[in-house]
Amino acid sequence: MSERTPLRLSGTFLQPFLGAGWTEEQWDAEYSWMKEAGMFQMILQWSADSQRHTAAYPTSLAAFRQDTRNDVVDCVLRKGMQYGFQTYIGLHLNHDWFSKYTSDQVWLDQEADIACALVDDLWSRYGKYKSFTGWYLSFEPDNVNLPAVKDWDRSIAFYRKVGGRIRALTPEKPIMVAPFFVEGHGQTPEEWGRMWQYILQNSPIDIFNLQDGVGAAHALPEHLPAWFSATRDAIERVGRPVAFWSDTETFRTLSGKFVPVEYPYIHQCMELVEPYVSNFTSFSFNHYMSPQQVDPKYYRLYRNFVDLNK
Fold this sequence. Notes:
The chain is of the alpha/beta class. 42% of the residues lie in helices and 17% in strands.
């Protein structure tokens, strides 16, 4: 029997506001810590906000303005080149998504148009970077708010429009989504699996990066196998390759706030989903493990694990 491969985080999501004011030295420190811990992937969670009409880079989109001191998109791609990181660039978020989802067809069509314009703008500015590995679609579907086939079809239409623009410009670069589930609400794991089989069979999604939801109090660790196994089974029925990753949460919810959690608890969650996934990203090393943001003990605990399992 072969020895089991130690479970490690491959990379992290970064919300752009966190790095918006970092100096060059702070960016280097962040990437050095990640690389020393064995990470090689960075996912910029979004590059623009269509509700506020702001961007984390000097955008050319009409009516949008940059609201960050740094060009955060350029920073992650440059540091990706320097430190050997695969870099996925998120499109836009809009907090209206969490009240509308797919219920407002006109709104969703407008958001798809914005996403396509962002793809054009981002690729024209940053396509030169070899670290530009793929794209991330920042809207997060769940098991509660897409109850009917008409909602699934609207999701498919959104993915096809945005994904079609991505494929036209960058046919080899994968498209990632990061859905989440809430245990005890909405669809069961089996219903969730049927929905995603249907959506993925009709959409150009390449990476399904499932949030484990434990940090956000959407689930307990013991709930994870049912959801991850149902998702894995659905992906296997799609009929084309779709990578299945875990978006592992590195925080916990305390009095309504997200706070860091020590690594052994995170590792417990990783072990529970390891039979189903091929990769572990995190939300988020930068926000809840980095010595620049939290007590360095959280990083030391993780580094101790990585060093013991080299």
